[in-house]
Amino acid sequence: MHELSIAMGIVDAAMDEARQRGVQVSAVHLRLGALSGVVKDALLFCYEVACQDTPLAGSRLIVEDVPVVVFCSRCNDTRVLGSVQSFSCPECNTPTMDVRKGKELEVSHWRLRNERAASGGSPTECTQAE
Amino acid sequence: MSEPRLVEVRRNVLKQNDVIARSLREQFREAGVFVVSLVSSPGSGKTTFLEKTLTLLQPQYRVAALVGDLATENDAVRLARSKAPVKQITTGTLCHLEAAMVQNALSDWDLHQLDFLFIENVGNLVCPSSYDLGESLRLVLMSVTEGEDKPLKYPTIFNSADVAVITKNELAAAVEFDWETARKSIESVRPGMKIFRLSAKTGEGMTEYLEFLGQQLRERHSVVLR
User: Fold this and answer.
1) Predicted ipTM?
2) Who's near B175: CB < 8 A, 6+ residues apart?
3) Which residues of A touch B8 (CB under 8 A)?
4) How far is A9 from chain B (nearest CA, A)?
5) A76 torsion bin: left (phi>0), alpha (psi -120 to 50), beta (else)
6) Taking 90 as the threshold, does the pLDDT of residue B191 lie above it?
7) Could you say which residues of chain A have pLDDT below 70?
8) How many Å apart are CA B112 and CA A97, to the nearest integer?
9) Of A47, B33, B88, B111, which is least packed with CB atoms within 10 Å of its CB?
10) Which domains does chain A have, with CATH numbers?
């Protein structure tokens, strides 16, 4: 159960960002690899807890699941694994440990409220890029 | 009023840990010490295995160990019987070791005086997989009493490890351990993984494993045997 310390790390980073830019972060977009060792549901729960009594309270954590992508030397191409229990090419069944994606645990975007929000203006949530 | 917006960041959440781990790895390389970390579920025999490893390596190599535990110092006391320098890292409620804990624990040790440093993680097959400790080799242990499908239940930790060690082989017959099924499970989540099957209690299989460690040390750091 290391999701709480990871959630706290995300909240700390978001607060740094908010302070530096003089803005409010309304949502954090996270890319979460199937091999990251982090359980999504536990992280979502912990995020809410970690936000309590901080400027991030009420913000959302939006998780994008990243499947494991391997390179198959026989097919000479990348393949998406259906399961992390079988590191073999789904097309030709050749075993492979050449992992190209799936270990991500990274914040991809901050969603910011408008810049006056921090000084009391009414925040408007951004809906672009969705 | 300015537009609210999405800002791209691409920020690794564990960056702080990774930065420290990289610096540790560099320190270990420079000092010529080969660092092995051990992960497993609680009760798989890490401490017994490590005590035996430290004892058997000592005539030839300079060895030491850091041992992570939630609350007690029992493991460090047991390992100290090997006469090797041992330091306990008590994690409190934390279920895994992080690179900063290793860095702090090593602050008063001269790494140049060591050939091997072993880091025993907290017994846990989930959380330690996310944290790089700067180690050269990660060993995942499973005992024959745990069931042959353990790798399939915890694929991430097996996938993140370099070598698998099947422990308590002296009990294999009693629990009808199916070696071939276990081997296939490991091969499925970590193709090509080196596997040792041994008993720290009887010493069976230890020689091959110790020779492997010696070879790793020579290959990676070109250290001449003393």
Assistant:
1) 0.83
2) B144, B145
3) 108-109
4) 7
5) left
6) yes
7) 114-130
8) 34
9) B111
10) 3-115 (3.30.2320.80)
Chain A residues in contact with chain B using a Cβ-Cβ cutoff of 8 Å: 1-2, 5-6, 9-10, 13, 17, 26, 29-30, 35-38, 84-88, 95-97, 105-116, 121, 123-126, 128-129
The owner of tokens 């790793």 is B216
Alpha-carbon distance of B157 to A53, in angstroms, equals 34
Closest chain A C-alpha to B157 CA, distance in angstroms: 8
pTM of the shown model: 0.88
Residues in chain A closer than 8 A to B160 (CB atoms): 35, 37
What's phi and psi for B183, nearest 5 deg?
Answer: -60, -40
Q: Which of B104, B109, B137, B123 is nearest to B25 (CA)?
A: B137
B33–chain A nearest CA distance, Å: 27
Paired with B90 in beta bridges are: B69
Give the model confidence (pLDDT) of B138-161 as tens digits.
999 999 999 999 999 999 999 999
Domains in chain B (CATH in brackets) are 15-218 (3.40.50.300)
CB contact under 8 A, B3 and A35: no
Token pair for B78: 């047991």
- Which tokens in the block code for residue B96? 């895994």
**Minimal Cβ distance to B6: which of A17, A111, A114:** A111
